[in-house]
Amino acid sequence: MGQKITIDPVTRVEGHGKVTLYVNNDGSIEQARFHIVEFRGFERFVQGRPYWEMPVLVQRLCGICPVSHHLAAAKAIDVIVGAGMGDELPPTAEKMRRLMHYGQIFQSHALHFFFLASPDLLFGIDAEPAKRNVLFLAQENRDLAHRAILMRKFGQEIILATAGKKIHGTGAIPGGINKHLSLEEKDKFLKGEFPLNIDTMIQWSLETLDFFHHYEEQHKDFIQSFVSFPSNYLSLIRSDGALDLYHGVLRAVDPNGNKILPDVDYHEYYKYIEEEVRSWSYMKFPYIKTLGQELGWYTVGPLARMNTADFIDTPLAQKEFELFRAVHKGKPCHHVMHTHWARLIEILHAAEKIKVLLEDPDILAGELFRQGNKQFEGIGLIEAPRGTLFHHYKINENDQIIQANLIVSTTNNNQAMNNAVLQVAQRTFKGQKKVTESMTNAIEVAIRAYDPCLSCATHALGQMPLVIEIVNT
Amino acid sequence: MAEVVRFFIDGKECMAKNGDYLLQAAKENGIYIPTLCHYDGLKPKGSCRVCTCKVNGRLMTACTTPIAEGMMIESNTLEIEEMRKSIIELFFVDGNHFCPTCEKSGYCELQALAYRYRITAPRYPFLFPLKRVVADYAKIIIDHNRCVLCKRCVRAIKDEMGKSFFAYRRRGQNIEVILDKRMSDRMSFEIALEAENICPVGAIMAKRTAFTTPIGYRKFDKITIGSDIEKIKTK
């Protein structure tokens, strides 16, 4: 006799999806699937629109990390307007865009860690659902919640100053940027009143890392064995091997750290990456062509970036990165819960980068944008908070988009999330006769570690919460 | 010397030259009457109806009504304002106006009027008509999704011989603005920008110039539409 259990809604992920588990009578898992049940639309309805609308139009995919879409589209359109292949923008333009991007990384990671993930860490997977949220966090740990809000605010203020709005700005334009930072804005971020200044943000980022280490000491088993499986990892990387969230070459490593995509030009991503469509999800399954559909899937995001990078070019984050790599003996880390650690290293890195950029005179003056000979195709990649984001456009002679392909960070993580769901379900449900709320939350915790943005991944319209469906077979 | 006449708008005594159109006369007296189709220096058209006022008890378009001695005009009344809001809302549902991604945002007079009248959503159902985007001109794009058929472009954008670049074609609900193909080939970038600027919405856009003004510095980021007129000190 089959049993169907639906949990509706499931919170603390961006967007809407569904998990289906096929459970045998002995409690073993026959099959686990993470479905995205919305349809894609953007790639179709941008067709016919003028190419210069893309950075502003496609960012409407998302309200959490619109800056990533804004900048990835802008990078693709830079190619179309003949402004080079990503590293030939005026210095002011590139630095302002980077400042915007690091502000975005900082706020998005802070949002995820404090608002979405920390209730699971602080109160436990088994805690009452009513307690596993940021409001209870605010009651129980006022200082942490206070910092969470202010760190997010700081990142949002950086975005406001560079893009014109905290959400859905217009800063990046084809071939550059549309504004300088004002002296007042620069001084506010550098020397503003406590706590909204960059030195406090760096200090708080360090203290958040301490918080995580302290937590891991007490919950080593959970962090290191809750969900862990070998994966390929992919990210952009600076040409010298440094972590670079804005621009670089494409690198992928196998579970042992061997390069399977050896720093290739991302403008030729289509030679290396293919997307598979499966009938039960609107989210595609990308894979590395040479490895095939079965073995070529990969993970992107903070954990992937820590696994692909050779070093980080900011001192405090580099120190933490060395510790991260030492713990894993120089090999890729497969502990999915260490994604939180990687995310916190990136928060620190973003804060350090923001400080360097704020001290750079180029952001106050200089050429804002440049254009050259028109091209008919443009590809832009960026490391969004959740991972590598691909934007690819083709235009006609009338400047209208005729084809668009967006491979969103969460899409890249599709197979990895499915694997995480399967592993957690196999362990959690084994031998259990009754399905409890904490068992289904365990699955959500695994998904949540990837910080998935399902509306981005499917370009969804409307609202539909994540649904978990368990089917006894 | 032109004869000066006395008239009243919402009870306020105003003075203007006899025969001036009400819209202009009101402006000179520091009273803003909204419009989409009128543009200073162009012959009045009266097509958008947004400037409708009650003149001596009758509904008239302010841009086409000459002022006369003793006229009693109702403009900023609940009845008239509500009717104007209704007309503005009809423009929104009759086209496809997606302000969030429109490069005219911050400069669009239709959007600015919606902000002035605090319209958050139209009371009428969206029609979502299928409209064309015509991009095969060298310097401009015409996005019919946004056109409000004000005819400003037809009336204002002309070559040195006085010939219009733009024209209407078809009739009734199928009417649309077109750009003469041969004239478009010799349209300068300056003329393209002029056409973009005279369009009250984002229907005519010069190519490859979008979003260069940061948010916060665009025309209607700084002022509410009409507030500059309302600041004019009257005698």
Describe the structure.
The complex is a heterodimer of chains A (473) and B (235). Chain A has a single domain, classed as Orthogonal Bundle (Cytochrome-c3 Hydrogenase, chain B), CATH 1.10.645. Chain A is 43% helix and 17% strand. Chain A has 17 helices and 15 strands. In chain A, the strands form five sheets. Chain A has a four-stranded mixed beta sheet with strand order 1-15-2-3, with helices on one face. In chain A, a hairpin with a 5-residue loop joins strand 7 (249-253) and strand 8. Chain A is globular and about 65 Å long. Chain A starts with a strand and ends with a strand. Mean pLDDT of chain A is 90; it is low at 1-11 and 458-465. Chain B is an alpha+beta fold. Chain B has two domains: 4-76, Roll (Ubiquitin-like (UB roll)), CATH 3.10.20; 85-222, no CATH class. Helices cover 26% and strands 17% of the residues of chain B. Chain B is built from eight helices and ten strands. Chain B has helices spanning 22-28, 78-94, 109-116, 152-156, 181-185, 189-198, 219-222, 227-230, and strands at 4-9, 12-17, 52-55, 58-61, 72-74, 133-134, 140-143, 166-169, 176-179, 204-206. The chains are: A alpha+beta (473), B alpha+beta (235). Chains A and B meet through helix 2 of A and loops of B.
